[in-house]
Every structure is written in C-alpha cells, then in structure tokens.
Amino acid sequence: MFGRTKELSYVAVPAEVTRRAASVFMSKCFVWMTAGLALTGVVAMMTAASGLVSYISQPIFFGLMFAELGLVMWLSFRVEKMSAAVATGAFLGYSALNGITLSIILMLYSTGTIASAFFTASGMFAAMAVYGLVTKRDLTGMGSFMVMGLIGFIIASVVNIFLASSALAWALNYLGVIIFLGLTAWDAQKIKRIGETGIMEAGDEAIRKGAIMGALTLYLDFINLFLLMLRLLSGGKD
C-alpha cells in the first residue's frame, strides 16, 4: 500500500505568522488522520467478524487495491478543484476501502504480532513526527532523498515478486522502515510550515482541504510503516 500524495497546496496570504495558527492546523491534520485510522480499524474488524472476507477473491482484492490507488491519485491531483466535503468523503472512502483490504492481509498474522506491530509502529511514528515538528533543521533535502529511495524501494519490491528472494525481501523491509520514518518527519515539518504561512486565514474550505491532504499523507506513512513492521516481527512472512 505504498503511495505518496501530491505536494500539499494551500492559499498563501499576507499574515502575521503565529505559533498558535500552526498548532491549530497541525491538530486538524492529526485529528483527521486518527479518524481515518479508526475507520480503517473498525471496517477491518467488521469485515473479518462478518465472514465477508471469505468472499473476497483475488481479483476483487486487486480491484480494491486499484480503487484505493485511484482515490489517492484523484484526491491528490484534483483537491483544489473539489469542495472540502468531497475531499473529506474521498479520504474517508479510502480509509474504509483500506480497512477491507487490510482485513485480508491481517488474517496472515497472529493477534500478538498485529498488536506488537501496531504499538511499535505507533511509537516510531510518534517519535519521528515530534522530531519533524520540533527540529530546527530543514528536512527538505532528506525528504527528497527519501522520496527517491521510495521509488527505488517500489521498483525493487516489484522485481522481487519475480525473484522471490527472501534475503532481498528482508532487506527491503528494513529499508522501507527507514524510508517511511524519514518521510514521517519530513511530512510533519511540511504540515507545520503550511500552518505557519497563513493557511488559517485562507477560509474554512482551504483549511479543511489542507487538513485532509495533511491527514492523508500522514495516514499513508503510518499504514506503510505498520505493514512493514508486521513483516519484520513475523519473520518476513507475507
């Protein structure tokens, strides 16, 4: 479930930069991210508990995956043209679809492994997000490097589908964790800077859409980190 969103865009207006404005905007992003993760979790549990997961064939599973990718791309590239309500619906729809696909993936792992991966990923994600928010260092260079690393990671992952190398898969899991931790710090810093540059005075529509895009970016970072930790804690099992 790799993916990146389009660079966050916003309406910049002349305004006095305040720490409070940045804090409020960041809070909105993290609240929506948490809402998305909660929806994903609820849908995943309901899908598994209802037995619906047994009716999801391989073609349906890949269809859902492509639908998720399509939603992310549509939201990323069309967010400026759509209303805040539509953007919110697209994000929540993606979160729900992801819950269905995750219910299938999570069947491969024990409850203990899932819990360990979730809490480990949560701790690592929180630490890197805080680092991105408090550091004085400009993480733009590191972020660009991580994006290039992500592209290489995706290509290597596709190649390994055919090679089926357990050693390469193991190395890619560790590399993926490093990449998404770096992206988490960079994305958190970008969101903070957007909050500092006047978006809170750009109107409710712009604020909501900016918060949704920030939430989606952080959501993708966390989900990918969680899935990578699942593989590592289970001995590389897919």
Structure description:
It is a single chain. 78% of the residues lie in helices and 0% in strands. By secondary structure, it is mainly α. The chain has one domain. α2 (58-78) packs antiparallel against α3. The longest helix is centred in the first third of the chain and has 32 residues, at 19-50. The two termini are 13 Å apart. The model is unreliable at 9-17 (pLDDT under 50).
Layout: helices, strands, pairs:
Elements: H1 19-50, H2 58-78, H3 84-106, H4 111-134, H5 140-163, H6 166-196, H7 204-233
Helix pairs in contact: 1-3, 1-6, 1-7, 2-3, 3-7, 4-6, 4-7, 5-6, 6-7
Give a quick set of tags describing it.
238 residues; mainly alpha
Silhouette? globular
**If helices are DSSP runs of H or I spanning 4 or more residues, what is the number of helices?**
7
What is the overall pLDDT average? Answer: 87
Number of domains: 1
Radius of gyration: 18 Å
Distance between the termini: 13 Å
Which percent range fits the helix content?
A: over 70%
What sequence of helices (H) and strands (E) makes up the elements?
HHHHHHH
The class by helix and strand makeup works out as mainly alpha
The proportion of residues in beta strands is under 5%
**How many β-strand runs?**
0
Q: Report the biggest beta sheet as strand number plus sense, adding barrel if it closes.
A: none
Report low-confidence residues grouped into runs of 5 or more: 9-17
Task: Please summarize what this structure is.
The chain is mainly alpha-helical and 238 residues long. The protein has helices at 19-50, 58-78, 84-106, 111-134, 140-163, 166-196, 204-233. It has one domain (19-233).
